[in-house]
Amino acid sequence: MREISGGQITDAVERLCIQANQFLPEDVRKAVRNCRDCEDWETARGVLDKIIDNFEIAEKEQVPICQDTGMACVFLEIGQDVHITGGDLTEAVNEGVRRGYEKGYLRKSVVKDPVRRGNTGDNTPAMIYTEIVPGEQIRITVAPKGFGSENMSAIRMFKPSAGLEGIKDFILETVENAGPNPCPPMVVGVGIGGTFDKAALLAKKALIRPIDSENPDPFYADLEKEMLEKINRLGIGPQGFGGKTTAIGLNIETMPTHIAGMPCAINISCHVTRHQTEVI
Amino acid sequence: MEKHITLPLTEELARSLHCGETVYLTGTVYTSRDAGHKRMCETLARGEALPFDPSDATIYYVGPTPAKPGQVIGSAGPTTSGRMDAYAPAMMKAGARGMIGKGARLPEVVDAMKKYAGVYFGAIGGAGALLAKCIKKSELIAYEDLGAEALRKLYVEEFPVVVIIDSRGNNLYENGRAAYLAAKKTD
Lengths: 280, 187
Hints:
The complex is a heterodimer.
Chain A: E1 2-5, H1 6-22, H2 26-38, H3 42-61, E2 71-79, E3 82-85, H4 89-103, E4 127-133, E5 138-145, H5 147-150, E6 154-158, H6 163-178, E7 186-194, H7 196-208, H8 218-231, E8 247-257, E9 262-269, E10 276-279
Parallel strand pairs in A: 1-3, 2-4, 7-8
Antiparallel strand pairs in A: 2-5, 5-10, 6-9, 7-9
Helix pairs in contact in A: 1-4, 2-3
Chain B: E1 2-6, H1 11-15, E2 22-31, H2 34-45, E3 58-60, H3 88-93, E4 98-101, H4 107-116, E5 119-122, H5 128-131, E6 135-142, E7 151-165, H6 172-186
Parallel strand pairs in B: 1-2, 2-3, 3-4, 4-5
Antiparallel strand pairs in B: 2-7, 5-7, 6-7
């Protein structure tokens, strides 16, 4: 049994909120640069150049890459041999978000009630996802999620007879509906299987997996490649001004599901797909 | 084609702009997004005056991050304009002519743009650090309680935008994509 204090968790979350909003992950930078080099439409190249300038400025000047510094999605993989001391885990995470968003000059974008609104003023509560795993460490990932792209996400409960074609059509339909709204080039996270809620979580997790990696199952790795190519033939292009680069990455995560169903969720993200991880 | 224009956006100026043109804006723009628009439209419905003179005004749909010490403003890129579609026709009726944002607009908004000679500009979504560099002054003028959604008066210099929908209703999201796909077909 290893003891980890709530204070250590708070400190890590604070750091990760700031870092994630200022430094774009290397896999995303690489993908934007590669797409810039492969782009065959002049307007689109111009937009991609500005997107590259922007993340370079953000890093150099330590300012947020995007003004939508998101809801703080915090993933905690907690080793089963860890004992958390010194108070409530949820409060430890929220305190980290509170401090990170204040010290990092990040925007407070959370309202306390979905219908009656009213800004909470400190970007809490965080969206917290916990998982108990073997070991005696805690792995914390903070993924700030902007809502321009979140709003273009979709979920559908397919009949199994819809098959692979149903999933493919749904992916293209969702990207088509999103059009210029989610600040393309996008990153597309696809979750297939589980239950209604698990499919959505898989889609969100797909956005955290590096976009230069592939699904370990060759069937889904091929599907990732095929769908990214198909999306990049739609012509939406960077910012929707037309061009090849509509998406810079597409990841698929799956899990077993019920004999009667085939849930599929698509979580849309933008070219500012952010996440930073620390292990305590 | 590139144009450099000085705001306010008069009717003559608005009508001279065409879909697809890159325009560098210099002058005053007002910031507002969801909650601010809701409040302004309630104000207009009561027959009261807005916190700023809307005549020929340009509204930037943005909720910036807080300014760090020494900065004029934090990161300040556009938010999705479609959420302001419910309010944009009323704002144009009140005199506001320019809108800066990103993403698709409803036909009702385009109809109002044709009627009132409105222009919808797109700034690069997700490029908030870069765009903030063109903002030279920022002053909070109303709705401070809304935090990031408060109304601000900005002075911008050579602020880069693209005309997405012009006052005749031509739309870059349709034309730009069609031109690209047509060029690919003939490749």
